[in-house]
């Protein structure tokens, strides 16, 4: 199984840089190797507000989310439904 390292949000001002196993890729997904990523104001607000932010799930403490959505990278693999 492949692993990755990412900054994950567990709650208000609780960010952790972690290495973890990647789940198996589904048919409607891509796998990208991130070259660079930046945090925008909305990501900063999510980190500061945690589960109080409208886009952060209530169970973020047990199911952390990856912070950052403005990135550049290389596509490594493409799911079956994405190949067309």
UniProtKB/TrEMBL annotation:
GO molecular function: oxidoreductase activity
Pfam families registered for this protein in UniProt: ADH_N (PF08240)
InterPro entries in the cross-refs: ADH-like_N, GroES-like_sf, Zn_alcohol_dh
Top-level division of the source organism's lineage: Bacteria
Residues in Alcohol dehydrogenase-like N-terminal domain copies: 27-81
Its EC number(s): 1.1.1.-
Alphabetical keyword list: Oxidoreductase
Protein name: L-sorbose 1-phosphate reductase
